[in-house]
Specification:
Among the domains are: about 225-300, Thrombin, subunit H; about 310-425, Thrombin, subunit H; about 430-515, PDZ domain (Pdz3 Domain, Roll). The protein has a six-stranded antiparallel beta barrel. It contains nine helices and 20 strands. The protein has helices at about 45-50, 75-85, 155-160, 165-195, 215-225, 255-265, 410-425, 455-460, 480-485, and strands at about 230-235, 240-245, 250-255, 270-275, 280-290, 295-300, 320-325, 335-345, 360-365, 375-380, 385-390, 405-410, 430, 435-440, 445-450, 465-470, 475, 495-500, 505-510, 515. The chain is elongated, with a radius of gyration of 66 Å. Its EC number is 3.4.21.-.
């Protein structure tokens, strides 16, 4: 047994050193160390944490106990064959056999140790270290699919010297040939297509300049459009549009009463005039006449373009006329046509305004639409001959132009405008009767329904039931025509009225009164 295996001897009796704490001779006494307090070990803790039974120290060998390190099971045959020591009679792998033959002396070549293997420095552990040539790289395998190489840009092709000049010249030649072939094919195709349609087409001839002689529509429009304005009204959140004609350099504009009536009768109504060049100006009401559907407004502008007045009395059916205005809000719109009829009595629908007019209208087929009202109807000289006022529609929501437009003759409108500018109001002649249109099969006329007391008709002796057939020189074919025949006269005029009473003709003189 060696020293590690010697059992450790433990004893609770410890010998105190005799010389460490002896009093030195002739010196002060020294204090001895306090004895160690070793409490008793708890039996439970000793059972859990104490040494196993029979073991007296940490390095003491086992006494009478089996060696636990040798209790492991022996390895399996496979592990012993793979990792165990070789048998003593097995051939060595570290040295070649004699003369390159097998160790068994059979004369067969050893498959592992070839001739000269003992002189191979890679197998000789005592050989010196030396650098040899690099190992030869294996040739690349080209049997698989080849990867796409990097693409060249145009700059590299032309200036990078990466393409042979002859190849570039060949590409250019091919491009030229392809282009020439395409051009030839296109020309032959075009020629064949032309031959299928018209081999010898005739093309109209044009002149270098466009003629706009005086009196043409273009000439008239160029001179007259600047004198026609657009009118916008606004009453609260609602608004409307119409047209007007500048009739005086002081800024007076003639229009229809039904265009400005909503703003004139409502509190806070606004009227604004837009000129041909886009200039806007607020307008003030000068006067209006609901019985003729005419009104005059004034704008404070400098040097406006003023329209030239013509004469509606000189018109004949078939004369060319042009309508200018702002239909549907489209300012400066020009349409042309002819005079379709003259002295056409038309009762106007006020469309929610106080307009109650019967006009002796000029009928035209020039396209007139909502918004043309108040605009100009001009003749072939460019002079204003009428104020566009009304259209005839099919009803049922069909409000567009159907070639039946009506304008107030300028001879009537000019006199009304002058009176409105002078006094702000107009007085008309009255006959003092209510009538309806009748037709007995032979004669058309206006039958008197009632006679107003103290009126002109009552003073002349006209009674209910009389049928008026003529006023002055104008035949009367209905009640509307009677109204316009009377209103074209002046208050105080004496006019001969022909009528039929009980089947007999009768003529009376009537002194017209004022409304």
């Amino acid at each position: 047994m060696n020293e590690r295996d010697a059992p450790e001897t433990r004893s609770d009796d410890r010998d105190e050193p005799a010389s460490a704490f002896e009093e030195p001779a002739g010196g002060p006494p020294r204090l001895e160390p306090r004895p160690l307090d070793r409490p008793d070990v708890d039996a439970g803790a000793a059972a859990v944490f104490g040494r196993p039974l029979g073991v007296e120290g940490g390095f003491a060998g086992s006494r009478g106990l089996p060696d636990r390190s040798r209790l492991a099971a022996p390895p399996s045959a496979a592990l012993a064959s793979a990792f165990g020591r070789p048998a003593p009679d097995a051939p060595s792998l570290q040295r070649p056999s004699v003369n390159g033959r097998g160790s068994q002396g059979t004369g067969e070549a050893d498959p592992f140790w070839t001739e000269g293997a003992a002189r191979d420095p890679w197998r000789n552990p005592d050989s010196d270290v030396a650098l040899g040539p690099p190992a030869a790289a294996e040739p690349p395998d080209d049997s698989g699919p080849r990867r796409e190489g990097a693409r060249l840009s145009l700059r590299e092709v032309l200036f990078g010297r990466r393409v042979e000049p002859r190849a570039l010249a060949g590409l250019a030649l091919v491009a030229v040939l392809v282009g020439a072939a395409g051009g030839l094919v296109g020309r032959f195709t075009a020629d064949s297509a032309n031959s299928l349609t018209n081999p010898n087409p005739t093309i109209t001839q044009t002149v270098d300049s466009v003629a706009r002689p005086p009196g043409s529509v273009a000439d008239i429009a160029q001179r007259t459009v600047p004198a026609v304005v657009s009118i916008e009204i606004r009453v609260g959140e609602e608004g409307g549009t119409g047209s007007g004609v500048v009739i005086d350099p002081a800024g007076y504009v003639l229009t229809n009463n039904h265009v400005i009536a909503p703003a004139a009768t409502a509190t806070g109504g606004q009227i604004e005039v837009i000129f041909h060049d886009g200039t806007r100006a607020a307008a003030q009401l000068v006067g209006r006449d609901p019985k003729t559907d005419l009104a005059v407004i004034h704008v404070d502008v400098a040097n406006p373009v003023v329209a030239t007045f013509g004469s509606s009395a000189n018109l004949v059916v078939g004369d060319g006329v042009i309508a200018i205005g702002s239909p549907l809000g489209l300012a400066g719109t020009v349409t042309d046509g002819i005079v379709s009829a003259l002295n056409r009595p038309v009762r106007l629908d006020g469309s929610g305004t106080d307009t109650n007019a019967v006009i002796d209208a000029i009928q035209t087929d020039a396209a007139i639409n909502p918004g043309n009202s108040g605009g100009a109807l001009v003749d072939a000289t460019g002079a204003v001959v009428g104020i566009n006022t009304a259209i005839r529609s099919l009803g049922g929501g069909e409000g567009g132009s159907i070639g039946l437009g009506f304008a107030i003759p300028i001879d009537d409108a000019r006199g009304i405008a002058e009176e409105l500018i002078r006094g702000g109001a107009v007085h008309h002649a009255e006959i003092g009767i209510n009538a309806r249109s009748v037709n007995d099969g032979t004669t058309d006329g206006a039958q008197v329904q009632n006679v107003q007391q103290g009126g002109a008709a009552a003073a002349a002796g006209i009674i209910d039931g009389d049928v008026i057939v003529k006023v002055g020189d104008r035949p009367i074919a209905g009640a509307d025509e009677l109204v316009v025949a009377v209103r074209e006269r002046n208050p105080g005029d004496t006019v001969a009225v022909e009528l039929i009473r009980d089947g007999r003709p009768l003529t009376v003189s009537v002194v017209l009164t004022s409304d």
